[in-house]
Structures are given as structure tokens and as C-alpha cells.
Amino acid sequence: AFKYRKQDRVAVVCLGDGGTSEGDFYEAMNVAGVWNLPVVFVVNNNKWAISVSLDKQTATKTIAQKAIAAGFDGIQVDGNDILATRQVVGEAIEKARRGEGPTLIEALTYRLCDHTTADDATRYQPPKEVEAASHEEPIVRFKHFLEQKKMWNATQEEALLNDCAKEVQEAVDEYLSRPAQ
């Protein structure tokens, strides 16, 4: 619709690595490539589609290379690096906005917790793998980066946590004060 209406807009589609094994993923990529659509596919490759490891989902070496069959660019990025991910996604959006077609971005990361409340990831995720990945967790990693650049400190951290707690409590209080229906 954006292209047909000649709108300066881009669709950004976010999915997990497991979603790339679905037929509608390939259909969407094919249409995006054939019609040169302004779309960016961002795949969060956390190595597990619920309890199925990546090597049992696909024979491709990377998810990014799945874009080759659709006729457009596929890029890998360190999904734990917030700045690198923002840069790559931003460039893909601008490329699509210029009419240069879709991009598939594979953000490499790792799921450190259960996939759903009904899941128990300890049944299939090796503990050493989880431990190693925990050191690359993006929020902690970005916090460390900001601290090293003297852009974040303990005082700011405490203020943010207090503000968040206050905002959540206000929302809870507002909800609890509503009359029963």
C-alpha cells in the first residue's frame, strides 16, 4: 500500500528465527523482492524456536542468506549491540524509503529465558551456553558502554528505577480505584 500510494513510509516486520521456517515468511519475502517493496524484515535469531535449535530449523548457514532467493539484501548484525542494530535497521529503512527495495536483517542474539510461561528452557538449553550468552545481554552491555563513556552513572540509574516504580504504582493505583463493572 505504501508503494502504491507513493507514501514515504516503510513497513518493518519483526519475527523470531522460528518464523523463518513458515511458508508465509517465504511468500512475503518473494512478493517484497518481486515488487521491490519498502519493507525491512528484522529476524531476532536467538538460536531457539521454542525448543527447536536453529540447526534443526534450517539448512542455511545464516538466516540472512535466505534473502538471496528473494532477490534482495540480507545482513547479519550483532543483535546484542544496540548501537550496531540501530545503525543497520536505520540504513535499511532509508534504503527502502529511497525505493531501493527490501532488506532482511538477522540480529544474532540468544534467548536467556523461557520462550513462554508454558516453556521450561532448562530442558533443552545447555547451561554453559546460557551462561556464556548472559555476558552479552544487550541492556547490561549498553549500560556498561554508557558508563565507560561517562554518559550514565549510579545516580541516574537510581532515579530511573524510582521513576519507573512510581509510574507503575500510579498505573496500578488508577486501575484499582476504578469502579467495578
Helix content percent band = 40-55%
- State the distance separating the first and last CA atoms: 41 Å
Which consecutive residue ranges, at least 5 long each, have pLDDT under 50? none
Number of strands: 6
Order of helices and strands: EHEEEHEHEHHH
Which class of secondary structure composition applies to the elements? alpha/beta
> How much of the polypeptide forms β-strand, as a percent range?
15-25%
Biggest sheet record: 4 strands, parallel
Helical element count? 6
Characterize the overall form.
Answer: globular
Mind telling me the C-alpha Rg?
20 Å
Strand order of the largest sheet: 1-2-6-5
Mean pLDDT metric: 95
From the structure above, extract its key features.
single chain; 181 residues; alpha/beta; four-stranded parallel β-sheet; 6 strands; 41% helix; globular
Question: Describe it for me?
Answer:
41% of the residues lie in helices and 16% in strands. By secondary structure, it is α/β, with parallel strands linked by helices. The strands form 2 sheets. Strands 1-2-6-5 form a 4-stranded parallel β-sheet, with helices on one face. A two-stranded antiparallel sheet has the order 3-4. Helix 1 (23-34) links the parallel strand 1 and strand 2 (39-45). The N and C termini lie far apart (41 Å). The model has no long low-confidence stretch (mean pLDDT 95).
